[in-house]
């Protein structure tokens, strides 16, 4: 047996020696050919020791059986706390769980799908909070009810954090200055006649492409983005298509062909 000290100190000697008891507990949960050698014991706390046994089950390399034992002070009776199968450092395990909402990507929503926004979403603030006149809680609730009943505008609007997150995402995306399309463009969007500027605080950095022939048509682009469909782009003489030759006039007739 290999005793492995931990931050909790040296394992309790009585519990550390109870290898046979720990193995018998594992054999109640697994077949004999699924339990390998004893890998050691270490202290979980005062008079609490965990034994590890190698797992030989096919498909579980790097896993081990873990049995935790404990006893009362000056007591001789040992108690089994738990027995579990755990992965080691080199075990093959499933990736960490990511909630469905966080796994969604643009384009994943289908017709009829709903993606509700949390009440405390930092990207949004109540519209009635935007302004110079702060309201107390009762007044805010009243204004919100009245606005909803009368249909007066949006209940929430973008916060400063929401605007910054959108700006960072658009700048780093396919409509930003570092996109391959922009790197090879003859000019930037700020001088293109098809750029429709956004309103508000993002107007000096972003716009929407309105060129139906461009890859970014209908998408947000940075003013320093660009593409080959710029409104002022001109083809150099060497880039222009070669003129087609004149049509050949065929003087032969069907009779002439037959006489040949």
From TrEMBL:
Pfam families: DUF3027. Residues 239-260 are annotated as: Disordered. This is DUF3027 domain-containing protein. The lineage of its organism: Bacteria, Bacillati, Actinomycetota, Actinomycetes, Propionibacteriales.
């Amino acid at each position: 047996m290999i005793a492995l000290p931990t931050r909790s100190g040296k394992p309790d000697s009585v519990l550390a020696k109870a290898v046979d008891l720990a193995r018998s507990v594992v054999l109640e949960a697994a077949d004999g050919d699924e339990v390998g050698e004893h890998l050691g014991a270490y202290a979980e706390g005062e008079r609490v020791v965990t034994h590890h046994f190698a797992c030989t089950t096919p498909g579980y390399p790097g896993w081990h059986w873990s049995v935790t034992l404990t006893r009362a002070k000056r007591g001789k009776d040992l108690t089994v706390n738990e027995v579990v199968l755990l992965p080691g450092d080199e075990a093959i395990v499933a990736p960490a769980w990511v909630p469905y909402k966080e796994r969604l990507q643009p384009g994943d929503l289908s017709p009829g799908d709903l993606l509700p926004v949390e009440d405390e979403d930092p990207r949004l603030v109540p519209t009635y909070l935007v302004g110079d006149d702060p309201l107390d809680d009762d007044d805010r609730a009243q204004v919100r009810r009245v606005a909803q009943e009368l249909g007066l505008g949006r209940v929430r609007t973008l916060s400063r954090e929401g605007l910054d997150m959108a700006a960072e995402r658009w700048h780093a995306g396919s409509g930003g200055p570092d996109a391959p399309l922009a790197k090879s463009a003859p000019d930037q969007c700020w001088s293109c006649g098809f750029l429709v500027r956004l309103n508000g605080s993002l107007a000096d950095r972003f716009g929407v492409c309105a060129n139906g022939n461009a890859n970014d048509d209908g998408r947000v682009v940075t003013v320093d983005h660009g593409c080959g469909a710029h409104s002022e782009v001109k083809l150099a003489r060497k880039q222009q298509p070669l003129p087609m030759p004149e049509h050949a006039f065929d003087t032969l007739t069907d009779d002439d062909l037959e006489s040949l």
